[in-house]
Amino acid sequence: KLYAILLTLLSLSIQKINGAALQFDSNFVGEGTNELATTLLQGFVEEDKNFVFSPLGFSSILAILSEGARGETRNQLVNILHLPEDTYSVRQTYKGILGELKEKYFLNHPQLKTWFYVYKNYSVDQSYKDVLTEYYLTEVATVDRVHSELSFETDDSTEIKPVYTTETEESNSTLTGETNSSSSDATQQKMDIKDEKKKHQEKTDLQESENSEVEQNTELKTIKTSEDDTSRKSKKDKDIVSIISANRIVGRNSSDTGISPNSKMILFNGLFFHGDWSIPFTISKDKDETSFYKSKEEKISVTTMMTKGDFLTGEIDDLDCEAIEIPYEGGKYTMLILLPKSRDGLSKLTSDLTGYSLSKIYSDLDLHPTEVYLPKFNFQTISDPRSILEKSGVTDIFSEKADLSGITPEELKLGDLVQMVTVTVDEGSSQTNFLTATDIGARDNFEFRVDHPFLFFIRDRTNNVIIVAGKVMDPTCDNGFLST
């Protein structure tokens, strides 16, 4: 009996050690997203417009490509992502981090999804597709043809989905009409049956999804939610419909632009995030608090939010900026804001940030009672960082040197690397306030006023991963496609 107890204790100790080791090893994704965040911000430093992207989204796409890359092509991807040699560790870590973005019991989690579509006439190694599905939670499908534009829409749970249509190839007119007609009819009949089955399956899946959601909500009775707030947010989420140009994996001898018959497969992802704060903001009605300086001289009027509470803030002397970390409800995700001390200091801040560890910034912050003034904004960016990655050493995958033989024996290269991200930052709502404005009214407060261009980062605190990064030049403007 004593031996059994000792064995149990030893087993628990090993589990704790292994858990700690996994947490330590998972830092490579954090390092990779940190480097991608600062590198891409620097690459778009000359763009005088708002910009938002997902370092984790690009990281997962590049990791997916590294699974099928060989030789120097793989080495370049491994270097920029800081991947360890242990493939099992890489796969398990990405699976864990990406999986948490799909779990409904995490409050305020971003919606990130990746798709890998293969045209019917091309074959992809089955083991590669299995890896994508199991470890990178990627939707893998075979399609006839995808139009050059793909729409993204959100359902009630704000999950991003592509809406695509397929085209069937016309029959060759030189073949005998009777044979083609018979074959075409049979094929069409099969397609009709398949479509009916698909519609039935989609209806069943939707029913099961709704039932699952009801069960999930029943299990989470301890989490307080507001039906009105949920309804409000759902209506806003349904309004997010956008167009994205798909990433193309093409033949290595192809120099085409846009989706064409030379395209073999497409790989892309999209992210949507609209979170609620742990300490909600209110809209400021003071006209003196609605000013935002686009430059030293140019001033515009914006909708400004205000809140009070205990926040991690500090001055980062190395970067000549001020920083604040604002938690979302649930505490897993936070927004870090870097505000240059001068109104025209964003370009210098962005340049100085290249290669800088964001973890160092977090370690320099201290908890202070603070009044925060922040402009509302809602940005959507479709970005193409190909030239930035090439300058950072990721070159082979876009060239004739590409070795993607782990995907298929055919000679392939990556045509484009395009991503869509939508982020909404507003006053939010919460049923559980850690500290209200009334609680801190009698204390001396720091003031953090965001009234000129700034950088922001949305971080997964538990995994130390940068989910979203961006810069705000004008809170009143939407934005579209950015490429270099």
UniProtKB/TrEMBL annotation:
One Pfam family this sequence matches: Serpin
Signal peptide, first to last residue: 1-19
Keyword Signal: yes
Domain Serpin: 38-475
Biased composition (Low complexity): 171-184
Compositionally skewed regions (Basic and acidic residues) per UniProt: 191-206, 221-237
Coiled-coil features, chain-numbered ranges: none
Gene Ontology terms: cellular component: extracellular space
InterPro entries: Serpin_CS, Serpin_dom, Serpin_fam, Serpin_sf, Serpin_sf_1, Serpin_sf_2
Alphabetic keyword roster: Protease inhibitor, Serine protease inhibitor, Signal
Keyword Transferase: no
Entry's Gene Ontology molecular function annotations: serine-type endopeptidase inhibitor activity
Region described as Disordered: 156-237
PROSITE patterns according to UniProt: SERPIN (PS00284)
Top-rank lineage group of the source organism: Eukaryota
Family under the similarity heading: Belongs to the serpin family.
Protein's name in the database: Serpin domain-containing protein
Organism: Clastoptera arizonana (Arizona spittle bug)
